[in-house]
Amino acid sequence: MSAQPRPDVSAPGPAARAPEARLLTEAVTRLRRALRSSIRTDYPWETLPMAQVELLQVLGEHSPARISDLAARRRLAPSTVSGLIGQMITAGLVARDVDSADRRASVVTLTDAGREKLAAWTTAHERRIDAALAALDDDSRTAIENALPALFRLAENLGGETGEGTREDTTAGAAEEAAGGVAEGATEGAAGGVAEGAAEGARGR
């Protein structure tokens, strides 16, 4: 009887790598949830919806900006962004202005109140993460620090062609999306919560 060919098991496929992706996703999700919850417990004034925070973060890096540009960067429908901007104008966080390059178009800019709100939000998150890091042992803190460059690269890969997920944009959050985000640009992120969250999940498993 002829020998049956053996399956090729030399190169792991996507299924073999799935647990790693699941753990990272879980870590980022748990970190974002815990950070958001603790911030609102420790700092009751922090009630700004995350969707508005993310727009403030983008405007902190790219202001002034058109609604269409903000929508592309956040990967949202222009109508959704327009509605959010309307709420933020009412709150005094942003303002509409005439586009100097095309006076038929309008742009959105951060107001002084918007900058102050973003700075306070970022500081609160950095303070909370700093306290959490201080409670870890030296090895865990070193592991998180060493993981940051790779996590920023991961955020860039997730950001794709829109430019979201670059180190600057993530620090104003991402991470909190996978950034996402502490200062999503800083690190909620890694803000974005990405960096710390992923490393925390890796450490705990």
Cα distance, first to last residue?
47 Å
- Say what oligomer this is: single chain
Task: State mean pLDDT (0 to 100 scale).
Answer: 74
Structural class: alpha+beta
Order of strands, widest sheet: 1-2
Let me know the number of strands: 5
Shape: globular
Helix and strand succession? Answer: HHHHEEHHHEEEH
Bin the helical content: 55-70%
Structure characterization notes:
The chain is an alpha+beta fold. Helices cover 60% and strands 12% of the residues. The chain is built from 8 helices and 5 strands, in the order H-H-H-H-E-E-H-H-H-E-E-E-H. The strands form 2 sheets. Strands 1-2 form a two-stranded antiparallel ribbon. The protein is globular, with a radius of gyration of 20 Å. The model is unreliable at 161-205 (pLDDT under 50).
